Amino acid sequence: MAYEFKATRRVEFSDTDQAGIMHYANFFRFMETAEHGFYRSLGFSVVMPETDPRLGWPRVHAECDFRKPLRFEDLVEIHLLVAEKRTKAITYQFRFRKLNEEPVVEVARGKITIVCVAHYPDGKMNAVPIPPEIADRIEVAPAELLA
Known about the structure:
The chain is an alpha+beta fold. The chain has 3 helices and 8 strands.
């Protein structure tokens, strides 16, 4: 079982705004990079076309607090921690650390909550329990790591 994952990304020119700072919305894209990497490390993908009905993971909550800016070419570690796991939902905490600064510094902290849903052919979707083959691979991080 796993409760954390780390991904590394470099801030691309297209991630920045006119001031040369990474646009706030891109922090959420970086969170998805870590989330999808976490799933792959557990042997599955965010897209699972083989399930019937097809499963999805929409966001029901997203937040991010920004402490320091990121700029073009900065190397960023995105540390995902499982903050909460319920029957149908998971909350992830993310810590962003700028790696190309000495000492390494935390620049932002975010959180997303996702819900497992079934997508039906008529376009409807309903929250459903996370399948055991996924839920059994994920555990909540120790409290001391989440503090």
